[in-house]
Amino acid sequence: MAVKVYERILELFEAEGVNTVFGIPDPNFVHLFVAAEKRGWNVVTPHHELSAGMMAEAYARMNGTPALCICTLGPGIALSAGSMMNALVENSPVIYLGGQRARITEQRVRRGRIQFVQQEALFENSVKWSASIEYADQTDEIIRHALRVSQSGTPGPVYIEYPSHVIQEELDVPPALPPSQYRLVEPGADGDMVIKAAELIKGAQCPVLLVGHAVQCTRAGAKVKELAELMGCPVLQTSGGTAFIEGIEDRTFPYLFAEVADEIVAKSDVVVAIGTEIGEPVHYGRGYLWAEGNTDRKWINIELDAEAIGQNRPIDVPLVGDLRTVVPQLSAALKDSPRQNHPDLARWIEEDRVRLEDLTKQDFSTDSGRVHTGQWVIESTKAMPEDAIHVRDGGCTVIFTWTYLQSKPRDVIWNQNFGCLGTGLPYAVGASVADGGKRPVLFTTSDSAFLYHIGELEVVQRLNLPMVIVVGVDNAWGLEVGVYKRTFGHEKTTEPGVHWSKNVRFDEIAKGLGCEGVYVEKGEDISAAVTAAFESGKPTVIHVPIDPVINHGGNQNLDTPNYDRFRTWYAEGQQ
C-alpha cells in the first residue's frame, strides 16, 4: 500500500484511538492537515502554539489516549516549549511533531537562516524521548516508539522532528499494527503480590483508598468504584485527583481540605495508593497528617513505573502494572470475602455533607460590596450541571475552590503539579473537543489567569463549545498580593507589579470575540446567571467583580481558607 509519510503518521495514530490534531498549519504540515480532515479527524487550530500543547494535554486526560500536537519549525515549536514542560510534570502523553528545515539547510555552517534554530537539543530535557524522521522508512518505528515511550512507566511527552524533505516521500507499507503488537498494553501485577495485598486489606481495621490524577486520565473510575465497595472503605482524593467517581461520590473526601479526612487518615491502617505519585501535596505519605494516629500503617502502591516504587516512602506491597488491569486483579482477590462498610463511614458522609452545607450559610458581606470569593465558588459550582466537566485556573480562586466547592464533578481538569497559570482556557477547549462537545463545561478562573490565552475564546465560539466561564475579577495577581503582605506586612510595601487596570471588562471582550458576555455584581445572582448561560446553549463569559482583600486573605494575609495547610506542600526539606 503506497502512502505519503504524513498519511502514514495519521494511520499510526488512528491505531491508538487518536483522531484529533491540535496546531497551527504552515507549509510543513498543510498536507497532513488536509489529509486529517479528509479522514474525519478533528482539526483544532488555536491562536498560539502554547495553547495547542495545553489543549492536547487536556485531550489526553479526557480521552485516555496520547494526543497529537503539531508545531511549525522555529518560532512555532519554540512557543510550544512551555507546554512540553507542563506535560512532563503533569505526566501527560502528548506527542509533539515539530517541523524543521530540510537537513541540507540545517547542516550548513551559515548565519542568517530564516525561521530556524536547531530544535531537538533544546527540548530533550523537557520530554521523555526525542527523535527525528530522517528517512521516510523510519516513520513506523519512530512514531511507534514515541507512542510506546509516552505511555510506558510514568506517562509523558515526546518530541519528533519532521524535516521538510521527507514530507512528500512515499512509503509502501502494510496496514498499521494494533498497539498490542508493538508495545505492552495494560500490564498486570505479579500474582503473589496481589494475594499479599488482598490479605493485608482483609485483615485491616480501617483500609482506605488514596486516589490520584491517573484514575481519571485512564478512565478507570468504574474499576476503582468496584474496589472501594469491596473494601467498604472511604476514598481520599489527592489535590490532583479531584474528579469524583460516579456512584461513590458520598464516600469520597479531599485529603487536607476536609476535617473528616483528617480522622480517616489518623485511623487508617492500610492505604491503597492508586494513580498518584505520593508526592508533596500528600506529604509523601509520611509527614503532616500521616504522622498522627496509626503511624505504623501498611502501604499498597499500584504503580505503572517500577522506578517510582518506594521513592517517597517505604511501600509494603508494590503492585507494578497498569491500574486498569491491577485494580480488577485486586478486586478479584477480594470478591470471596467483601468487607462491610467501615462503621464510621455513614457518620463521615453526614459530617462532610453538613460541612459543605454550613459553608453556604456564612456571612459573605464585604466592606467593598464586591463579591466574596467563597460565595463566588459556591454560587458558580452549585449551578454546575451534574454531568459537567469542571476546569479550574488561577491562584487564590483555586485555593478557595478546594474548600467551598459545592458540586462533585466526574471530570476535573486543572494544573496541579506544575502550578502553571493560564492553562485553563486551552484545557477547557481540549477537554470539550475530546468529549465531542456533548457535556457542559464549567470553567472557573481568575482574571489574571484568564488573560493569558483569552484569544482562544474565538476557538470556543468557532466550535460552539457548550462552555460557561465564570471569571473572578480582583484586578490583581491576588496570590502575589498576599505574598507581599505576608513578607513585608500590610502597607509596608507598594506591592510593585501585582495590580493592573480596573477598566477591563471580560464580558465585553467575550462579545467582541463572538461569545455571550454577562456582568454580575451580586454574589446571589451568579447561580442564576450560570444556569441561564447553560440553558442558552451559547458559549458565555460571566464577569464577577470579587473583593481583592478577601481574595488575598485579608490585610494580614491570614484568612484564605486552609492556606496554612496549602503552605505545607512547600516544607523545603522537611518532609
UniProtKB/TrEMBL annotation:
Q: Which cofactor does it need?
A: thiamine diphosphate
Q: What InterPro entries does the annotation carry?
A: DHS-like_NAD/FAD-binding_dom, THDP-binding, Thiamin_PyroP_enz_cen_dom, Thiamin_PyroP_enz_TPP-bd_dom, TPP_enz, TPP_enzyme_TPP-bd
UniProt keyword annotation of Transferase present: no
The text of the family note is: Belongs to the TPP enzyme family.
A Pfam family this protein belongs to?
TPP_enzyme_M
A single GO BP term for this record reads:
isoleucine biosynthetic process
Record-annotated Thiamine pyrophosphate enzyme TPP-binding domain positions: 393-544
User: Is Nucleotide-binding among this UniProt entry's keywords?
Assistant: no
Q: Start and end of every Thiamine pyrophosphate enzyme central domain?
A: 196-330
PANTHER family of this UniProt entry? 2-HYDROXYACYL-COA LYASE 2, THIAMINE PYROPHOSPHATE ENZYMES
Q: What is this protein called?
A: Thiamine pyrophosphate-binding protein
The record ties this protein, via SUPFAM superfamilies, to: DHS-like NAD/FAD-binding domain, Thiamin diphosphate-binding fold (THDP-binding)
Q: Which residues form the Thiamine pyrophosphate enzyme N-terminal TPP-binding domain?
A: 4-111
